[in-house]
Amino acid sequence: AIEGFYVLRYTPDGSRLIGATFTGELRAVDPARGTSEPLRADAFADLPGGYAPPNEFVLNPDGTAALLRRQSYHPSRVLVRHVPLAAEKLIDLRVPDWYHPATLAYSPDGLHAVTVESQTGWVGFWEVASGKSLGFVRVVLEDVAWGGGQVEVAPDGRAIAVSYSTGHHEYGSKIAVWPWPEVLGAAGELSK
User: pTM value?
Assistant: First the structure.
């Protein structure tokens, strides 16, 4: 066993395993040798104390960058950061204080991020290069949302699906499927 990692992902082509440590350092893991090597030690070096370890982490479609989520203890705030695996600029998504995304995904082209808040049903869309919010859409009504939000991108890149469990047997779970990239325009219109 290789110790010290909080979350792990294989690159999309399956050639490498990338892990994030408790502090958010990104490392390439070699399971055959039981070793790891640093990729980005500075992913969260600028943060003050008081942040939980990254508990959500996804790689972009070509495996060259990651979205990492960290949450501060007090005040409760979520930080989502686009971290290129090479030594390039780190980009924070401009997540408003009212929004606490729990699940992350990249768009099929890697230019956008999709975030899902697991309690109120809001899905956010972001431009990765700038961190700018492109808008929000709601999957379920706030009074029936409960948790477990998940986002998946279709293998052909033409749709995204978001699922929620409401936690109430009378409402069950909900799945919304939107065409990509048309949902970006809808999110922008709804946010105006």
Answer: 0.87
